[in-house]
User: What shape does this take?
Amino acid sequence: MRRVSIISAGMTKFGEHWEKSFRELIVEAGVRALENANLEGKDIQALFGGCMASGTFIEQEHIGALMADQLGLNPIPSIRVEAACASGGVALRMGYLAVASGAYDIVAVGGVEKMTDIGAEDAAIALGGAGDQEWELFNGATFPALYALMANRHMKEFGTTEEQLAAVAVKNHKHGFLNPYAQFRNEISVEAVMNSGYVATPLKLLDCSPITDGAAAVILCASEKARGFTDLPIEIIASSQASDALALASREKLTEMKATKIAAAEAFKQARIDAKKVNVAEVHDCFTIAEILAIEDLGFFEKGYGGKAVEEGETALNSRVSVNTSGGLKACGHPVGATGVKQACEIFWQLRNEAKERQVKNAEIGLTQNVGGSGATTVVHVFKRGD
Amino acid sequence: MRRVSIISAGMTKFGEHWEKSFRELIVEAGVRALENANLEGKDIQALFGGCMASGTFIEQEHIGALMADQLGLNPIPSIRVEAACASGGVALRMGYLAVASGAYDIVAVGGVEKMTDIGAEDAAIALGGAGDQEWELFNGATFPALYALMANRHMKEFGTTEEQLAAVAVKNHKHGFLNPYAQFRNEISVEAVMNSGYVATPLKLLDCSPITDGAAAVILCASEKARGFTDLPIEIIASSQASDALALASREKLTEMKATKIAAAEAFKQARIDAKKVNVAEVHDCFTIAEILAIEDLGFFEKGYGGKAVEEGETALNSRVSVNTSGGLKACGHPVGATGVKQACEIFWQLRNEAKERQVKNAEIGLTQNVGGSGATTVVHVFKRGD
Assistant: This one.
């Protein structure tokens, strides 16, 4: 298989885009990604797009064809992939495999979701489709409730506190404050999180990522040709994916995401590094507990120590490992199909030293971890600066 | 890129499966495909699943994870792809690329749809998502109406008659009568089609494919290892995909599917054969006019001659080219996400001489053409018997 690099990235601001359509979001992110590398549409040979639930959110399927059409890329092959909230990460992986295989030299990878066009109840059903709708949601377990079960168990087994959960949100809002693409650009305090209403005990409103509209795109190129487009390509040195039971009740443990552990082990093997080498990581903090599980299961910290690590600042900007410099899903926002691609955009900018006020110093190795549902899919990518 | 072969196939009967769930359909098709090659779940390294609109049909997304879970395949990567009614064909192509790349030796490709759990109006919205919902369906053009526009134009330009359209349905019911997996196992006459009610002039009820539940699966293997699993692997000698405008109004012509022409040209180039070499083809007859467009755009017959060719029996079983021996979408049924994979199952059985009463004699080369929406995506695969 050939080596693959990212040569460009582009995204919309994440937020509530009442004035923009699904299609406009796609075009805005896609055109920015093309322009940032001085590419034209005709340079792109195939398109992979992540989108989770457009059928429910906007009553439109056939998203691959729609993306190619709106971006003026016909007649290239265009493929939508869906893996719930990991749709973007899986799209990246499919694009990676397509270039690695030799089938294409340059492909575009996008992710998009327009979530604000329907009411809260319909949105809950749409997002419930990420879990086991039949066994969980239809029986009354909302999506936050699934993560609340994990949080409760983690608190019981390891003494993790609600304040430690809150510390995740506080950190990510601090980062989001520095990111012009973020939905929430306000800092919050532990007290503010603690005083926000319970959504599903122990998770409170400010432990939860928001409903978001947005799109993100990256351009992948065979590494051997990447220098023709940019002086600083970012190589994808690992791409892995693993699956676990769809329903929480069928998992071995509530205090870890097995799919993350398996995907991480595979990714570090491919990249020939260990977790300690990672300078900057975008992980899937759909709820604050998810970030704690992620930094443990990725091997950044020992199992059970994640909450304390966040509380003590070991994941803040320019600490031991800078986690969610974009603001994460919590503060940057979480347009479900776009998140996995946004994570790659953020790492691309970090490793190129283009992240401005939120720049991690001397970042050489970046990682993204994108989760579908309550952990049934995890996709991990590892990125490296330079050649 | 490595050569890739199909080593096994399995499917459910297509039909109205009131007694079976989405999950049961997946398991039935998947287990049959595994058993037919004496494989076990642990032999499968990745799973690619086509599904169009599960969010609308059954309020469930994250279909990749659900498939892996139900089939006991965790923790392998499992990816759902969506390209409207071409979802199955695109899943096959993704599985093909994954093996061709060297990333995996053996992968499973599945397709599934459970369409009968919702009412007709909701189903119309779900299927409308295959076209341009915003510009076509919301403005009153039902999905049959889009194909009716194509039929009218074809009739005007080339003198194609309603009786010739009917001849497609008559032929495909004749084939479906011979196929134990088919939804409709009854022969019909041209008179019956002509006397069925108009759905969208000139298309009548019996010009339209039905609402169907069903699933289909194939197992792909690197050709160099395929003989370890079966004495008669069927090689995929071409895999191509093209895109066109999502909305009919944006197409260059109504009398051809440009994406089919482009995908076919690319496929025949990869396969190093021309259309004349194809013995048996499964093409996308969601409406009778679609089969006429397909056999013209694939190059089996000259543009404008398709209707006459069908009427004169040139596409019947064991004629010049045997088209839709399964019964096609019309008689075998059309569970939208499964159809593209079912087409591959049928060709696999035909080229292995296992199609019994509907067997094409001495079939060496097979082809599948799977269309998304009204032609915005076309996927073409070419298959060859033996090594």
